[in-house]
Amino acid sequence: MAATLEDGVLRSEDGGKSWRGWNFGLLNWRVNTLCRDSRGVIWAGAESGLFRSDTDGRRWQDQPALVDTAINSLAAMAEGGLCLGTIDGALRCRLNPDAGWILTQQWGSPLNTICAIGERIAVLHGQAVSVGNGASRFELLPYTDVTCIAWLDKTRLLIGTDDGLVHGIDVG
Length: 172
Fold this sequence. Notes:
The chain contains no helices and 18 strands. It is mainly beta and 172 residues long.
């Protein structure tokens, strides 16, 4: 599956040789991000909000009144939890499927990337990166011009900068 800004969600069933739209239920086709949680639910973050699919992307259901702004990034957490980042810099997390959404943090710049491992969350906002644990307070790391982030394991984070890759920063 792939999120696109003009054609919605695309899916290939032949290893990427051909793609077709799987957009039934999406309110618009500007989809910024996709994520599958630990229960197999696929989430789509779009310009028009959050959508979920329990049918492997064949049908989408709007998740109304969650946010009224574009969703730039999604990250699945342990126990079916989910975090979403918005263009206005808000991070909202739901720690498990039965919990409500929490406004976890608000930054002044768009949330470009969220990655999670267990309950650990790393967030790329603007060109800075912050790390937190679930819905707890976030710590700003001393790196600038950050372009990408990924967890190496539960305590080490890979950080890509304009100057190259910073390997395995211990944020334990």
